[in-house]
Amino acid sequence: MSTPTLSPAPHPPLAFAPQAVLFDMDGLMIESERALLGCWRQAAQELELALDDALWLSMVGLSDRICHELLRERLVEDRVQALLQRCQQLYDAQVEAGLPLKPGVLELLALLRERGVPRAVVTSTRRPRALQKLGLCGLLPHFDAVVAGGDVERPKPAPDGYLLAAHTLGAAPARCVVLEDSAPGVRAALAAGMTPIQVPDLVPPDATVRALGHRIVDSLLAARRLIEPALAG
């Protein structure tokens, strides 16, 4: 499955200098969604479960708890547990082998560090796994804070994670830029009163998501072009 191709967005650069930039992790900075999709497919095939890609794609950006609930709507509990266990084994091997970074992420992080803009990760992934991924990919030293799954009561699309990150960095929510690939993440950012820039990965934004009126670009390189002019001052 290829990355969604979007026409260049006619979005103006940011109208304010951000006090912080908050990053999602999977599918935005790390090329992990495709790896996980492959693990789901392989695990389902090995267990002879008839589950299509639409189910996996509907889970993008959601917490583990919600994803497991979606599986339980399709499968009995012992099959859910077998699927989760096998998928976890396959994905562990992928993570340990190293997952590639998305183009432009290191350049954007370097720019923000150079300009003194605080940076945080806000992810639905549980903290041990999030820190493992960020560490193995070499991203962890680039961030001032990590808000992970379990750090807040309500996951995305609730705003709790982004609000906690802003508070941790001492930034006003209205002066925070959020970089996200998924619709739940964009909704979380908007609910927090922040400015999201969406860089879609496996799931292109549908009409409902586009109607939210936020910026949508095709890469982190394009996101940088929106952010950098606001840092000039």
TrEMBL record:
InterPro entries: HAD-like_sf (IPR036412), HAD-like_SPP (IPR051806), HAD-SF_hydro_IA (IPR006439), HAD_sf (IPR023214), PGP-like_dom2 (IPR023198). Keywords: Hydrolase. The keyword Magnesium does not apply. Pfam families: Hydrolase. Gene3D superfamilies: HAD superfamily/HAD-like, Putative phosphatase, domain 2. SUPFAM superfamilies: HAD-like. Coiled coil: none annotated. CDD domains: HAD_BPGM-like (cd07505). This is HAD superfamily hydrolase (TIGR01509 family). It comes from Vulcaniibacterium tengchongense.
